[in-house]
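User: My collaborator sent over this chain with a note saying "see what the structure looks like." That's all I know about it. Can you take a look?
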Amino acid sequence: MPKLKWLPAGAGAAGAALSAWFGGWSLALQTLCLFMAVDYITGLLVAGVFGNSQKSPGGRLESRAGWKGLCRKGATLLVVLVAARLDAVLDVSFVRDGVITAYLCNELISITENAGLMGVSLPSPISRALEALREEAKR
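Assistant: Without extra context I'll predict from the sequence alone. Here is the result:
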């Protein structure tokens, strides 16, 4: 039992180191993590409850598709980490934020696609903005 008392301190130290590597726990990074979680949860709902997933055969919940989604999110965070380290090396502060902004747009599109697959209608200004983002992404 005595070893477990160090667990919270170790977790805190690991979290602080990770935050420092990412250039700080900024609002942009917090938002990206939140959007990633919402996207994953809505993806689970689309497959598990609605059976309407485009990522698995039959549209149902599948562990392999879920694992792929988590791997993609992990790779996204690795790219953000690389961008944060580039910021540090170049002594600038825009590379990481630009990368995060691009991924935020992608996560937002995915969240709204999931909402659409669940039958949730979106207000027209949001639909138009998302369509503009999709068109921009095609270029």
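A starting point for your reply to your collaborator: The mean pLDDT is 90.
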